[in-house]
Amino acid sequence: MSQESxxxxxLGGALIGAAASLLLLGSGRIAGISGMFGHLLTGRxxxxxxxxxxxxxxxxxxxxxxxxxxxxxxxxxxAWPKLLLAGLLVGVGTQLxxxxxSGHGVCGLANRSPRSLTATAVFMGVxxxxxxxxxxxxx
Length: 139
What we know:
Helix content is 71%, strand content 0%. The protein has helices at 3-27, 33-41, 47-65, 80-96, 101-110, 114-132. Helix 5 (101-110) packs across helix 6 (114-132). The longest helix is centred in the N-terminal third of the chain and has 25 residues, at 3-27. The chain starts with a helix and ends in a 7-residue tail after the last helix.
């Protein structure tokens, strides 16, 4: 990993933590992205959730416009069927696990939740298996 990639990863992690902290301090809500998105699809999204989701969507474009980010090669020509299947599986997994990587992995671990530790271990284990068996490529 290059020094620039390491910097971007650290900066991204710090920004995720800051956004989750601001959401919690400002509204008392946990940054569970799949829950917010689910509420958006069912018409039950709060204004705070709408702003949070808009920020998630706008951030890469803003970073690109500022010259701080370039699109990774694997996103140049994504395989849409794989992306749609992956999104569907993530949605099913978040329902089964009662939360997503942001809710459990970022907020739940910060709260020292044993349930979130278990869920995050399962997320990471499945991700490692997917990569190990060669299903990690999107193109």
